[in-house]
Write a structure and sequence with these properties.
Length: 272
């Protein structure tokens, strides 16, 4: 924190970081832009966090502290004769981080760790993730995950997370992702980003007969979400879309006359 700040300003930076789980540099930037009015700055930050994010001065995380965190949640897997954070340890870790299981930040943590198996971290994976995030305490980890979530407003970052999730959601013995797992992760990643998400999920459940989701469907759905507007009028039927997406568009278009009669309003997707 800058030594040139007054005591009152330093107190506001501490309050801001406590409320938003952001870093000192981001807090000072947001407060400065909002006339050092704490309430106004917090509201502005939550409205558009990416506008105020500042790369924090990087200090190398303490590997010993990261190992201590791992030791708190790990257990011995006797079959593999190795220590992992397994399901019970993961539950305790998320409780201590105050993160619900369905939070996108949980998925971000797995992504940064390059985890291979759901609800499991090896020692190397956990260390890699926290080093990547720059965190060696739970408080810092919370702050870094919050910042990483804000960075998902960048479509490249969002695509990286989305692409990672396919292999993460897939069982090692499977070629494709189970429908239930795909639906759950679509809800986590695409909520608020895909105007037709509820329709898509219901369509997959009703018309896809809960068949597993192949990689091309998963991958091209992201392109569909980013390029097609809420009423599918921008959909190119001659594009190289999977059959299931073609059928979904036909399904949506078939519903539109009734929706128009009911006075429903189509919703445009988020801009990136």
């Amino acid at each position: 924190m800058s030594k040139s700040l007054s005591k009152d300003q330093k107190d506001k930076v501490k309050q801001f970081t406590s409320l938003t789980e952001s870093g000192d540099a981001t807090a000072q930037n947001c407060l400065t832009q909002n006339g050092w009015k704490l309430d106004r700055a917090v509201d502005a930050y939550y409205t558009n966090p990416s506008q105020f994010l500042v790369a924090e001065a990087k200090s190398q995380p303490d590997r010993r502290k990261i190992e201590s965190i791992f030791q708190k949640y790990k257990e011995l897997d006797r079959e593999r004769n190795a220590e992992f954070i397994l399901f019970n340890g993961m539950v305790r870790l998320l409780e201590d981080l105050r993160l619900p299981v369905e939070s996108v930040r949980v998925l971000i943590l797995a992504w940064k760790c390059e985890a291979k198996v759901q609800c499991e971290f090896s020692r190397d994976e956990f260390a890699r993730g926290l080093l990547e995030l720059g965190a060696d305490s739970l408080d810092k980890l919370n702050q870094k995950l919050q910042s990483a979530e804000a960075e998902l407003s960048n479509m490249t970052k969002l695509r990286e997370l989305y692409n990672f999730t396919y292999d993460y959601a897939k069982q090692a013995s499977q070629k494709n992702v189970d429908c239930d797992a795909a639906v759950a992760y679509w809800g986590i990643i695409l909520s608020g980003r895909f105007a037709l998400l509820d329709d898509w999920i219901q369509f997959i459940k009703d018309f896809n007969n809960n068949r597993s989701i192949p990689r091309d469907t998963w991958t091209l759905l992201f392109d569909f979400v980013m390029t097609v507007n809420g009423d599918c009028s921008k959909y190119d039927k001659d594009g190289a879309w999977p059959v299931v997406i073609d059928e979904f568009v036909e399904h949506i278009k078939a519903k539109q006359p009734k929706q128009a009669a009911d006075g429903a309003v189509t919703v445009e997707p988020m801009e990136y």
